[in-house]
Each structure stands twice: as structure tokens, then as C-alpha cells.
Amino acid sequence: MRTSSNPAFRNLPTSPGGYARFGDAPAGMAGAGGMFGGGGSPMPTAAADDRPLTVDDVVQKTALNVVLALAVGVATAWSGIYALGLLGFVVGLVLALIIIFKQSTNKWLVLGYSAFEGMALGAITGVFQNMATSPSGSSFAGIGVQAVLGTLGVFIGMLVVYKTGAIRVTPRLTKMVIGAAIGVIVLMLANLVGSFFVPGGLGLRDGGALAIIFSLVCIAIGAFMLMLDFDQADQAVKAGVPARFAWYLAFGFMTTLVWLYIEILRLLSYFRQ
User: Fold this and answer.
1) Where are the membrane-spanning stretches (predicted)?
2) Signed CA dihedral, 17, 230, 148, 136: sign only
3) Which residues contact 173 (CB under 8 A, 6 or more apart)?
4) 42, 77, 131, 221: least CB-packed within 10 angstroms?
5) Distance CA 273, CA 270 (A)
């Protein structure tokens, strides 16, 4: 497998045999070409968690986590208890580190991560929505819905780009995206440290022209990370990893979607100030 920009997708175990990829024939069509690595052999009748991974497994688990995060986020935003955002980020980070370093396929850990990240994102969105109730902040009305639609649009757009082969995932592209991601993270940290000494730090998050450009770059990198994640999930399905790793892959998609949502929300806030 190729190395992904998403740490959650690295070093997945493999098993013999290739299986349907994203965009290939449905899993139920046993006679379809390209579905089985063993020349059309029937799917093994193993336990549900040990059978080979399918596209449906990844789609269903990812959709479940997205819906859960969205539901918790909406509930948090409406509750007005925005202090829950800090709790969500801290617990979400702890769960993410556990899942990544243990390569855990425990569905409760993954669902917990999505729930707490939804809580954190809902609190941030709620703060903007609350600003919209005052005359000076009326321009922030509906920013959460727009950020959700923007994130969904990027997801669908990159999926189309990946499936049509308009941009192919190559080792060179993977290295470029990983390098760019590391670069922006370093700049974010430098900006954070700089803000302790100079108001606005490096000016990457102050809402000015440079901040807008930086957010656009972050969104672009996040979009390419998402395409690399599609490819990594595709490779996992093709390699026939156990079905239980659908939860791990869903977690990987969620980390990228969280990145995209935050950056899109931030960019929208700049334009609305």
C-alpha cells in the first residue's frame, strides 16, 4: 500500500486476495470481473469481523460516524453550552492518539471520537451562530450550514476526481501532499507561538489577506489528503484486509473531514467579518 498523509491509514494489515475497489462492481456480483484476486472464487464464509473488507463496509461505517458527529454538533450548538468545545477537543485528541498508536478497530473508540469531535465543532459553530444574534454579528447567520455544505462539496468533488482519474494518486503526489501538510502544521504552530509575543502572530489567522490565502492553502491540502485517503481505503479493500478495519478507515476519513470543516468555517468567518 501507498503511504497516506493521514496517520490513521498507515500500516494496515493485509491478507491474500484482491477485492472490489471504489468504483468497481457491487460486492454482490460474484461473476463481475476484477472483484476477486483469485479468479472469481466465492467470498469466504468467515466471521463478520474476519471476512475481507468491502466498499460497503467503509461507506456504512464512515456515514454512521459523520451522522453521529453532525447530530452531536447540532445538539451542542443549540444547547448554548459552548464550554463543551474544550472537552470535545481534549477527549477527541486522546481518543485519536489511542486509535492511531494502537491501530484500534474498536467501534466504540471510533464512535466516541466522532461524538466528541462533533461536540467540539458544534461549540465553535455555536459561537459564530450566537454572534449572529447581535446587530454587529448578523453576517455570521447560517455559517454552520454553509461550512457543512462546503465540506460535503469538497468530499464529493474529490471523490469524483479520484474515480474519474482526473488526478492520479502517485507516490510523488503522496510525498508532496504529506510535505505540504507538515509545512502548514509547522506554520500553524509558529503562528501560535508568535501570537504570545506579537498580536496576531505571523498574521496567518487574523482575517487579513494573508490569512485568507493560508486558509485556502489549508483547504486545498485537506482536499488532496482526502483523495489520498480514498486511495488508501481502495488499496485496503483490494488487499482484502479484515472487515473490522472499516472502523479504522472511517476514523481516518473523519480526521480529514474535521480538518476541512474547521478550515472552511474559518475561511467563511473571514469573508463575513
Assistant:
1) 80-101, 108-128, 140-161, 173-197, 209-230, 242-262
2) positive
3) 167, 224, 228
4) 42
5) 5
pLDDT tens digit sequence for 151-184: 999 999 999 999 988 889 999 999 999 999 999 9
Which among 111, 82, 109, 115 has a CA at the least distance from the CA of 97?
A: 109
Quote the domain boundaries for residue 198: 52-272
Residue 200 lies in a domain: yes
Flag whether 37 is in a domain. no
For residue 272, which of 77, 139, 181 has the smallest C-alpha distance? 139
Which residue from 151, 150, 92, 83 is spatially nearest to 123, judged by alpha carbons?
83
Task: Indicate yes or no: pTM above 0.85.
Answer: no
Comparing CA positions, the residue from 245, 249, 242, 233 lying closest to residue 24 is: 233
* Range list of H helices, 81-167: 84-102, 107-131, 143-164
For the record, the C-alpha cell of 55 comes out as: 466498499
